[in-house]
Design a protein that fits this description.
The chain is mainly α. The protein is about 70% helix and about 5% strand. It is a multi-pass membrane protein.
Length: about 300
């Protein structure tokens, strides 16, 4: 069944788009990620203009995250205070991201920047997560005890000023790195159409030492509201949000997130991190291949969206 997208100005298979939303929603609930890092490339590979894909995916991230957040709230697996601090930084970062997005779009460099950014970020973060998760699995199989976070165990972040206590996560740390982390995720989410959970989750675990059981729900809480702000900014500023595409993705995403959140409770933390690392590396590799392959048409006519007649 063909579905016409008014903003993207192309027809698409409705069931294909619905399936993409459901699959990415499942991953969102499973890993505590927005899923945009996977859905945005899938839409681009399917022929959706990058500007429309990035802006519209923020709406799907909101829907799938909201569905999963409700599940984690019922289980009391969210640090609301920590999530609120991350959210404050995230909204500020989203506002700056929209300004850069609009500038790159007007210069005609948005597509290249998106591709290069995906290759760089996904390659680096995926490799780090893969190496760490493999080490954790090996330690567990050989019987070597994995060193857990202990009260009083600190790193350089714990020496920063403006400290705040987060009782749910059993933390007493500076709000500076929390606000910076939230701002960075919000900025990248707006520019690249990603929820940022694949960066947020390892950062909370390894830098702030948030307990694994609290990380996923807290990450989703921040992603939910940050991407809500990004959606509003895109709708008003860049006007590239395709509501027909967004609604189709949302329906699939909400359904998939519920199943993912249930499955995620039955997997070990190191297993979740390994699977997430493989996903991140796979998407980054796909973008790298696209950048290296010579296109069939060396020249193309670019139409700037939103330009006046």
């Amino acid at each position: 069944m063909q579905l016409y997208l008014p903003i993207a100005e192309i027809p698409v298979n409705m069931f294909l788009i619905f399936g993409m939303g459901g699959a990415v929603g499942f991953l969102s609930g499973l890993f505590g990620i927005g899923g945009g890092f996977l859905l945005t490339p899938l839409l681009i590979f399917s022929g959706i203009p990058p500007a429309v894909a990035v802006a519209t995916v923020t709406t799907q991230v909101v829907a799938s995250s909201a569905s999963a957040v409700m599940t984690y709230l019922r289980r009391k697996a969210i640090d609301l205070k920590l999530g609120t601090m991350l959210l404050i930084g995230g909204i500020a970062g989203s506002a700056l991201g929209v300004l850069l997005f609009d500038l790159l779009q007007s210069l005609g460099q948005l597509d290249v920047v998106i591709s290069l950014s995906y290759v760089t970020f996904l390659g680096a973060i995926g490799t780090l997560m893969f190496v760490e998760s493999i080490r954790a699995i090996r330690r567990r199989k050989t019987g070597v005890a994995v060193r857990a976070r202990r009260p009083g165990q600190h790193n350089w972040i714990h020496g920063l000023p403006l400290k705040m206590r987060f009782r749910r996560s059993k933390l007493y740390v500076s709000v500076i790195p929390i606000l910076v982390l939230g701002a960075g995720i919000g900025f990248l989410g707006t520019v690249l159409g990603i929820g940022g959970g694949f960066m947020m989750v390892p950062a909370l675990i390894y830098l702030l030492r948030v307990p694994t059981g609290i990380v996923i729900g807290t990450s989703l809480f921040q992603i939910l509201f940050t991407m809500s702000a990004a959606t509003v900014f895109h709708a008003i500023g860049t006007q590239t949000v395709d509501l027909v595409l967004a609604l189709t993705l949302m329906i699939g995403g909400v359904i998939g997130a519920q199943f993912g959140a249930r499955v995620g409770q039955n997997l070990r933390g190191d297993q979740l991190r390994l699977l997430l690392a493989l996903l991140v590396l796979g998407v980054g590799l796909r973008f790298a291949i696209d950048l290296l392959i010579v296109p069939d048409d060396l020249y193309s006519i670019a139409i700037t969206m939103g330009a006046g007649a």
